[in-house]
Design brief:
The complex is a heterotrimer. Chain A is built from ten helices and twelve strands. In chain A, helix 8 links the parallel strand 10 and strand 11. In chain A, helix 1 packs across helix 6, helix 4 crosses helix 5 and helix 5 runs antiparallel to helix 8. Chain A is elongated. Chain B has one domain. Chain B is 25% helix and 19% strand. Chain B is built from three helices and six strands; from the N terminus they run E-E-E-H-E-E-H-E-H. In chain B, strand 4 and strand 5 form a beta hairpin. Chain B starts with 11 loop residues before the first strand and ends with a helix. Chain C contains 21 helices and 25 strands. Chain C starts with a strand and ends in a 5-residue tail after the last strand.
């Protein structure tokens, strides 16, 4: 399928609430995929559960709408089996940082070439507005009977600490910026994470579009901001700067790229050093049987491969 | 008077399963508890307390137990055979299976 | 005249070289043409607890079961003798370490308190003291030959001669016990050396030193050579695999074309994934076999879901686990069912509930695996009776998963996983790789096309094709749909595929009958009870009861027609079910699926394998009395 000129918009009616930040994200995905000229048949969006989980149905590329919190494991299997695919995960804050937090951390450790896009709205929308892992302590959104009794996790900090090698934040209604960040994230080789601040018009009356419009500012406006690790010795200092910057929240909220490190090997590279033939010969491209349904391993090959376990009997005479 | 043989020496590290043989911590060689040499040093309570301070633990061969505090050490020292540490066999790591 | 069948126990502390002894001895025996099966019993522990190997050897074939009492107990320590002395038959032999003769049962900290007091009670009843010397006396009184050697002397000699490292003493203690067992069984030193060479492979020094140990043992025990001599082997194999159940399943997965295996460490499944990692890619005669991506995931949830992900990309994928891990995978299985994704879950049962007996076997997860996951959808559960069956069934599991686009659970257990056996080489000429791949029709691709029960499946990444998957109810394209008419068609499609499995899979792969029908009874079971059940059927024939064994291989969909036919032919009389569980749940599954009532049940749930002697007795009891339920529990 030719990337150029393809409409990435599917014909499924988009059923998010009017004014939802997801519309901004969806539009940025269309534009980013068009700019990247992605082949829809070689692209897979993997999502979890919740409002963000529906996103793949609205996009004309392969879509895998999975279980709550488990989009990353599904994406991991898809990508490892066929490394030629571009794999992008979409998940909410409850999905990726609550029920799926273990997988979120594990992907960072692997630095597998997958993009993770966080739809961060501070609430569980589809179940009517419960507090999510990114809602600050004591915040009381309108659906909550009592103020939030649990603290928020900082997604940027967690991503940096977990080992993601591209970590950025954008805002759902900052269209051009968001599109650019997604393009950079897809181009990055290794695990990339994009935290997207997103209003929930129905359940979150604190983090509204008005709230964000007044506060977000772009990191790249500061000529001294340089998040790129160019050699391994810079890693710790750049990480610390990213973490420090990610703690900035309140009157001013930074968006942009927090951290980029291309000096860390990707999981694909680690695998190819072990498997040698990978990724050129990979699980999806390798042959397992002949035309007449016989396995690649015949009696002769069997004895050669498993010679360590075979005993040739030699009875005494 | 304690017999001056490896089995009574503070530098004798018994094998975890076959404590009659072990390792000499001075010469780093395999020895049997009935061997002896002129570097003999009795496994006295003071030597063991000293080892506890350095190693963080001592080993009670009688109980197969690792002791980490002085009171415990003193209690075991009355009737048990103590050593600075036990020799852990290589095969253990290869054969271990747990949960 | 020697023994055509013989069973023995090798015992010692965990990690003391027992595994090595079993590897060496089984290879030496196989080399000389004997059949071997050896079960490995061990605690959930790294250092110090008692473990043992229970082995059956035959000069005629690969033994099918373990039995008590044993002819030979080879002990590495006093605890082994205290734990197993009652298992030695009169006329049998005990080999022990002379240096621990004075050891008292009360002085062994690693013995569990309840066992210690039981042993002390037994010894008291026998009028014996609590030390090993007294036990030796008891045994001699029973006609057991006790043969002692000083391990210390041999080890000391090795230290002087070779300067061996005390950190590797187990390598030599294992040499002592392997050599003494070989000597008693009448194996020659050349065969023993072969065993050392195969096991220590590249470590020539270890071979030399163990041969030296063997020479010392031969010198000292010369007069006992061949005391338990095995008959000249009559087996017909010229080459055998010597492997565990974990190994065999891994080998079969490689043959089946597995390309993605995910796992989270758990006993007794992890060794399978280790094996696959070792053989992840091979190049033979210019052909690449693999590559298999083997990944240790962060948990079992990621294991199953990443395996499903790999399956969507068109590759044969699987995961291996045990009960606690399987429980975590259940939501993923439901997704696979909903999305008609082929995936194989190799499930090695162990003793539950919860952590239960983590290193012991069971068959108590039959109902859990047959009925796991919410919603209704097609899912297949297969089991295997022995190593060779497990090989073919593993291939079958992938074929069924792909042909019918559904999750398959291959339900095995710890007994099979951890027992080593001599296995005839599988006949690869019999193996077919059936993927059920049909050409994708032209036009807009519908992943869940409703024209047939099985829709054409295109992998993600197929050029020019896009598709959607969702755990929500969906339309033919894979888009969410809550529309009732579509719901009825899609929901039914996913369930009714099971009928195809039931109709198309040959009866022989679903249920196998062993023995001549028209006898007095029908013993029914599944999985690893097969070997012992077959032997019990043979054994009880000597006592005048003729019967058959029915091995239920496909547990779900339950082979209703096949079972009913067998039972009809045998007049529905005297049906006895046997299982490693409390409930003997196969009987309940049969009642539910086939409407047959099986009242007589033989249960064992100690975590130890059912042995021939106890099963034969239990079977006789159910056949000769109105006792319906017999619980057996032999073995330490």
């Amino acid at each position: 399928m030719e990337g150029r000129g393809v409409s990435f918009k599917s014909d499924v009616w988009v059923d998010w609430c009017p004014g939802c930040g997801n519309y901004g994200i969806l539009t940025a995905v269309f534009k980013a995929f068009a700019e990247l000229k992605l082949d829809p048949s070689k692209t897979v969006i993997v999502s979890g559960i919740g409002c963000s989980g529906k996103l793949p149905h609205f996009v004309n590329v392969n879509g895998v709408h999975t279980l709550h919190g488990r989009a990353i494991p599904f994406a991991t299997g898809i990508k490892l089996a066929n490394p030629e695919l571009t794999v992008v995960v979409h998940g909410g804050d409850g999905d990726l940082l609550g029920i799926g937090a273990g997988h979120f951390v594990a992907l960072g450790r692997r630095n597998l070439d997958i993009v993770v896009i966080l739809h961060n709205n501070g609430v569980y929308g589809l179940t009517k507005g419960q507090a999510s892992p990114t809602l600050p302590l004591d915040a009381k959104t309108k659906a909550l009977p009592k103020p939030n009794i649990q603290q928020a996790v900082n997604p940027i900090m967690l991503a940096v600490a977990s080992g993601y090698t591209f970590v950025a934040r954008s805002y759902a209604f900052e269209g051009e910026h968001l599109k650019n960040v997604i393009v950079d994230a897809v181009k990055h080789r290794g695990a990339a994470f994009v935290d997207i601040l997103q209003p929930c018009v129905t359940f979150n009356d604190i983090f509204t579009s008005e709230y964000y419009r007044k506060r977000v500012y772009r990191l790249d406006k500061d000529p001294d901001w340089d998040p790129v690790v160019r050699k391994p010795e810079e890693r710790i200092s750049k990480m610390l700067k990213a973490i420090e910057k990610s703690a900035e929240w309140g009157e001013r909220i930074p968006i942009g790229v927090f951290y980029v490190d291309s000096t860390v090997s990707t999981y694909e590279e680690r695998l190819s050093s072990r498997l040698k033939v990978y990724p050129k010969v990979n699980p999806a491209s390798s042959v397992i049987a002949s035309e007449d349904l016989r396995p690649v391993v015949d009696d002769v090959k069997f004895k050669k491969i498993f010679s360590d376990l075979i005993v040739r009997v030699s009875k005494r005479v | 008077m304690v017999e001056e043989r490896c089995g009574n020496c503070v530098n004798y590290s018994p094998h975890v399963y076959y404590p009659q043989v072990g390792r000499c911590l001075v010469f780093s060689t395999g020895v049997s508890e009935s061997d002896s040499c002129d570097k003999f040093k009795r496994a006295s309570i003071d030597e063991l307390l000293n080892a506890l301070g350095g190693e963080g633990s001592v080993y009670c061969t009688t109980c197969g137990a690792t002791l980490v505090d002085e009171e415990e050490l003193k209690a075991h020292s009355r009737n048990h055979r103590l050593a600075i540490r036990a020799v852990i066999d290589e095969a253990i790591a290869e054969e271990a299976r747990a949960d | 005249m020697g023994f055509s069948e013989l069973s023995l126990i090798l015992g010692g502390p965990q990690g003391s070289g027992l595994e090595t002894s079993m590897l060496v001895l089984s290879r030496a025996l196989a080399y000389r043409g004997y059949g071997v099966v050896a079960d490995r019993e061990y605690y959930s522990n790294i250092v110090g607890r008692h473990s043992y190997i229970h082995m059956s050897i035959s000069s005629k074939r690969t033994p099918r079961s373990l039995t008590y009492p044993v002819k030979l107990l080879v002990s590495m320590d006093a605890e082994t003798v205290f734990t197993h002395f009652k298992d030695i038959e009169s006329g049998g032999v005990l080999f022990y370490d002379k240096d621990v003769r004075a050891k008292k049962v009360t002085e062994i900290p690693s013995i569990e308190e309840s066992l210690r007091s039981r042993i002390a009670r037994d010894l008291k009843a026998l009028g014996a003291g609590e030390d090993l010397e007294s036990v030796l006396g008891v045994l001699r009184g029973r006609g057991v030959t006790t043969i002692g050697m000083s391990f210390q002397e041999i080890l000391r000699d090795l230290m002087k001669t070779f300067g061996i490292d005390p950190r590797s003493l187990s390598r030599y203690v294992s040499g002592i016990i392997t050599s003494s067992a070989a000597l008693l069984l009448g194996l020659d030193r050349e065969a023993l050396k072969y065993g050392f060479e195969r096991v220590f492979a590249a470590r020539a020094k270890l071979v030399e030193q163990n041969v030296y140990v063997a020479d010392s043992v031969w010198r000292e025990l010369k007069s006992y050579e061949g005391l338990l001599r095995l008959d000249y082997p009559e087996t017909e194999f010229s080459e055998v695999l010597v492997a565990t159940g974990n190994d065999v399943v891994a080998i079969a997965k490689i043959v089946a074309g597995l390309r993605y295996q995910s796992y989270y460490p758990i006993t007794p499944a992890a060794d399978e994934s280790f094996f696959l990692e070792k053989y992840e890619v091979s190049e033979v005669d210019g052909t690449i076999v693999g590559p298999i991506v083997v990944i240790q995931t962060e948990d079992e949830i990621a294991a199953i879901n990443s395996a499903i992900g790999a399956s969507l990309a068109g590759v044969r994928s699987s995961t291996a686990t045990s009960g606690p891990g399987f429980d975590l995978m259940v939501e993923g299985i439901s997704w696979a069912g909903m999305n008609e994704a082929p995936v194989v879950i190799t499930y090695y049962q162990r003793g539950g509930p919860s952590t239960g007996l983590p290193t012991r076997g069971s068959q108590s997860d039959l109902l859990s695996s047959a009925f796991a996951a919410h919603g209704e959808f097609a899912k297949v559960v297969l089991s295997s009776g022995d190593h060779l069956d497990a090989f073919y069934d593993t291939v079958l599991a992938f074929n069924i998963a792909e042909k019918y686009q559904l999750p398959v659970i291959h339900l095995l257990d710890k007994f099979l996983a951890n027992s080593t056996a001599t296995i005839p080489l599988p006949d690869l000429g019999r193996v077919r790789i059936e993927r059920g791949l049909k050409p994708v029709p032209p036009g807009t691709y519908k992943r869940f096309n409703l024209e047939a029960l099985i829709s054409p499946r295109a992998p993600l990444g197929t050029p020019g094709v896009i598709m959607w998957y969702t755990g929500d109810e969906h339309d033919e394209f894979g888009h969410i749909s809550e529309e009732p008419e579509n719901r009825v068609r899609m929901y039914s499609k996913r369930i009714e595929k099971l009928k195809l499995v039931d109709e198309e899979v040959p009866g022989d792969l679903k249920l196998r009958v062993y023995g001549d029908e028209g006898g007095d009874f029908c013993l029914i079971g599944w999985g690893s009870v097969k070997g012992v059940a077959l032997d019990a059927v043979d054994e009880i024939a000597k006592r005048g009861f003729r019967g058959i064994y029915v091995d239920v291989k496909m547990l779900w969909p339950f082979p209703r027609r096949e079972l009913l036919e067998v039972l009809r032919r045998s007049g529905f009389g005297n049906v006895v079910a046997v299982e490693h569980s409390y409930g003997v749940n196969i009987a309940d599954l049969a009642a539910m699926a086939a409407g047959v009532q099986i009242r007589k049940r033989i249960a064992k749930f100690t975590g130890r394998p059912i042995t021939l002697s106890e099963l034969t007795q239990a079977l006789e009891k159910t056949l000769t009395s109105d006792v319906d339920r017999v619980v057996i529990s032999y073995g330490g």
